[in-house]
Amino acid sequence: MKEQVKIPVSKVHRASKFLAAGVKVGGNYLKHYAREAINGKTGKENLHTENAQDIYHALSELKGSALKAAQMMSMDKNILPKAYSDTFAMAQYSAPPLSYPLVVKTIKSNLGKAPAEIFDSFTHNATNAASIGQVHKATLGGKTLAVKVQYPGVADSVVSDLKMVKPFALRLMNMSESDVNNYMQEVEERLMEEADYELELQRSVNITKACLAEGFPGIQFPVYYPDLSGKRVITMDWVDGLHLKEFLQTSPSQDVRNRIGQLLWDFYDFQVHSLRMMHADPHPGNFLFKPDGSVGIIDFGCVKEIPDWFYPTYFRLHEPGILDDYNRMIELFYENEFISDRDSEEDKKLFIPLFRKVIILMGQPFFEGTFDFGNDEYFENVYALSESIYKNKDVRSSNHARGNRHALYINRTYLGLYVMLHDLRAQVITRSRNQSWKITKTRE
User: Fold this and answer.
1) CB 443 within 8 A of CB 334
2) Among 388, 418, 344, which Cα is nearest to 174's?
3) Were both Cys, which of 9, 182, 232, 297 would link to 153 (CB 3.0–4.6 Å)?
4) How far apart are alpha carbons 189 and 76 in whole angstroms?
5) What are phi and psi of 363, to 5 degrees?
6) 365: Cβ–Cβ under 8 A, 6 or more apart, which residues?
């Protein structure tokens, strides 16, 4: 893949790149309508493919939050046309890499020396290039290391990038502006944290220590090296393994798939219910899979800390029978901001049964205690419900967003976990061993 020798850093340069992509998209629509005028209705597959490629090309040159947004959208099945989700998925671990001179400059400004002066060996080409940074393989004192280098300008462009992406999200994802504004602060906070490698290093060390103390045989965490890390560089042990797509091509047995699925479920279960935080970026690029059914966890850049007050509010929805007690259900719907005192009776008639249906479907793995994530019918129902909601004009016309912003990354994480487990076709014991909340009335 061709290396990128420079990244637009200033707001003007980044905006001009994005606007240029918009011009190309406009041209694609003109070509689409011209084809229809000549050939009649031809469908929008070519249009979506051309637009996806042009938008991704622009975002991959910008990198940072703009490319991260594409990555996030690629994980949400059925929200985007397939051409977009397939193309944007490349942002997970195969974005165009940064050229070696820029890598040297970044490491030198953070660690005081060039890579050749620090490590015994250091690959000139990136082994993995994603949205926020790229990884190089190095050796030192007999150890094989992974050195993650952040792209220039990422931390300084989060706010301006999100402003650029917002109109794109409004149009392409058919989201109301109130929905976008409600969650923009949450997304901005997570992206600012993800660009803070010092915070990532601290969280990586702390979460790894807690998980090792709990005991997760089969999960491998790298050792991190603070002395070889800085504000824009993180050095850790190299972890071997395959990304999910390549791993599945080896035709692992059902026992191995189940073992991996159980490890992933227990890993998230422990974080959520014991640490009150979660690795909130469950895309396949952050996990490495091995033939013996073990898993490497290699990235804690995006972590969602769950506020103590919000934890019982959210997870009481998973209590068996809670949705059969109408009064308690309504109380929880208010607390989770699914409905509010601003709603009319017509709004409540629409959203109460809708959210009940969503929780029953998405909570099914929790409610059943043991779940077969290879069940295609279940995921077809999930995607069909998602599509019906996004196409519902009454839902779209709601004058305010639904759901507390703290649920955004929790929901996204569980959906990403579900999708990974579905790809694995894993059968998992989902009954939590760590749930500890007390059922108390919290809404006055």
Assistant:
1) yes
2) 388
3) 9
4) 20
5) -90, 0
6) 371, 373, 418, 428, 430
